[in-house]
Design brief:
Helix content is 78%, strand content 0%. The protein is mainly alpha-helical and 348 residues long. The chain has one domain. Helix 3 runs parallel beside helix 16, helix 9 crosses helix 12 and helix 11 packs antiparallel against helix 17.
Length: 348
């Protein structure tokens, strides 16, 4: 789908022998390494809402990607030759990816973490490897091969059981803490879970669409494409931040703008995750997406889940409860099980 026109999106992609073949060992190793690096950096975004509980999710989402856009400007100068090759449709695609995969995704995620804590939204996001694998199985079978459904079902069941264990454990702990603090707001917890599902929807669409562009443009630089998304994010995030500022002023909110009650921590965190999670993480993910089949690279998002859980428990200063640890182990086992399934070629 070269330029993502309406006709191109509707038309089936002609399968390529090169793209449909299994990745070579070195390509598999390097692609997995890039996915691991992306996961370690993306895990950082789960920490910021916990460290900034007084900052609204909309402000955090806008500020994070405003920082990403500003960081992308000097990088765009370095990649100006590659960026000049992008067409208007390419820039339109970068804008769509930025709006859904960046701003909307992080808005849902930050709000979910602030309402339900860190581990539950993280585990819901942890379903992404299999959700993306299923979607890729349905839409990209001719390009990447199909994962046999009967072999995939046991791993789905193990992952679902793992999420159930963590949900039960975290809900029990959350209820006990909320009761000690004066009341358990189950509606707030449930809203957090639903927002996490919204984040899953956004980030199921993003890697599939992003991989489409990268696989259709194997000669293009993944670094330049990451920078292009940062540049496309800048006007969106600037408008979102300005809108939030105007809303706080119009509503008579006492929240101190533009940097809130902890300006040094806020600005430092936004710049750090703007550089590491947004730009460098996207670059590493683009490298992985260009090397591996979509159904395979989608499952490697489990690295993000594991990193986010590790950071959350480090921030809490405690080990996970036994049932939570069991749920994490089941999640990893389910994804590893799914990774062992080999794609089967589908005739055009």
């Amino acid at each position: 789908m070269g330029r993502f026109s309406a006709d191109a999106v509707a038309a089936p992609m002609t399968p390529s022998k090169h793209l449909a073949s299994p990745p070579a060992p070195l390509r598999l190793l390097s692609g997995t390494g890039f996915a691991l690096a992306a996961g370690l950096m993306w895990g950082l975004v789960f920490v910021a809402p916990l460290m900034l509980p007084d900052y609204p999710a909309a402000m955090q989402s806008a500020a994070r990607y405003l920082a990403f856009g500003l960081i992308a400007l000097p990088l765009a100068w370095l990649d100006r030759r590659a960026l000049s090759q992008l067409t208007r449709d390419d820039w339109r695609e970068a804008l769509k990816l930025s709006a859904v995969g960046n701003l909307l995704y992080y808005l849902c995620l930050a709000a979910a973490i602030q309402r339900a804590g860190g581990p539950l939204p993280t585990m819901i996001i942890g379903t992404l490897p299999v959700v993306i694998a299923i979607c890729a199985n349905l839409r990209d079978a001719q390009r990447d091969g199909r994962l046999p459904w009967l072999k995939l079902l046991p791993s789905l069941a193990v992952i679902a059981l793992g999420i159930g264990c963590v949900n039960h454990s975290e809900l029990t702990q959350w209820k006990a803490q909320a009761t000690a603090d004066g009341g358990a707001d189950l509606q707030r917890y449930a809203t957090g879970a639903l927002l996490a599902v919204g984040a899953v929807i956004c980030w199921t669409w993003y890697p599939l669409r992003n991989a489409d562009w990268l696989r259709a443009h194997p000669d293009r630089s993944p670094r330049a494409w990451a920078t292009a998304q940062g540049v496309a994010t800048l006007p969106l995030s600037a408008l979102a931040f300005a809108a939030f500022w105007l809303w706080t002023a119009a509503s008579g909110s006492a929240f101190p703008m533009p940097f809130g009650p902890q300006p040094a921590l806020f600005v430092g965190l936004m710049l750090a995750i703007g550089l590491l999670a947004s730009w460098l993480g996207t670059l590493c993910w683009n490298e992985a997406s260009q090397r591996l089949p979509t159904s395979m690279v989608g499952q490697l998002i489990v690295f993000e889940t594991l990193a986010a859980l590790a950071y959350a428990f480090l921030l809490r200063g405690q080990w996970p409860a036994p049932l939570t640890a069991l749920g994490i182990a089941l999640l990893v086992a389910g994804v590893l099980w799914a990774l062992r399934i080999k794609p089967v070629r589908v005739a055009p």
